[in-house]
């Protein structure tokens, strides 16, 4: 029997399900809209600050990129901040799946929960 998701997991999944859809459909502007205007973004390329850098990062990704994630840990840092650590598999049609650790910080805004910090780490193989 699976336990009910925590409020933190619910917030994370609410944002990350939309992020996954944007990544899978190669919609960089939709992905960027899930971030705050001042978000710090660290994918596997040099970091950027703000939605424009997020959109450029996802626009540069292969069209066949797909994401699958699992929430590993989550914490409420305050009523308006949620920390999440996730295991993410980025799959491609022509190359091996890339497994990473993803730390994100969600901030509750007038527009709802948005990603304020995104940090990818390669996992040891």
TrEMBL record:
Q: What is this protein called?
A: SnoaL-like domain-containing protein
Tell me which InterPro entries the record gives: NTF2-like_dom_sf (IPR032710)
Superkingdom of origin organism: Bacteria
């Amino acid at each position: 029997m699976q336990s009910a998701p925590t409020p933190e997991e619910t917030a994370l999944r609410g944002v990350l399900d939309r992020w996954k859809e944007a990544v899978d459909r190669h919609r960089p502007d939709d992905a960027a809209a899930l971030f705050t205007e001042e978000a710090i973004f660290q994918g596997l390329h040099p970091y950027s600050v703000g939605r424009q850098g997020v959109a450029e990062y996802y626009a540069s990704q292969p069209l066949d990129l797909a994401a699958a994630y699992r929430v590993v840990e989550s914490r409420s840092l305050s009523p308006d901040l949620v920390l999440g650590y996730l295991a993410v598999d980025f799959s491609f049609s022509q190359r091996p799946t890339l497994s990473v650790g993803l730390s994100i910080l969600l901030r509750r805004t007038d527009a709802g929960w948005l990603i304020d910090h995104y940090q990818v780490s390669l996992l040891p193989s």
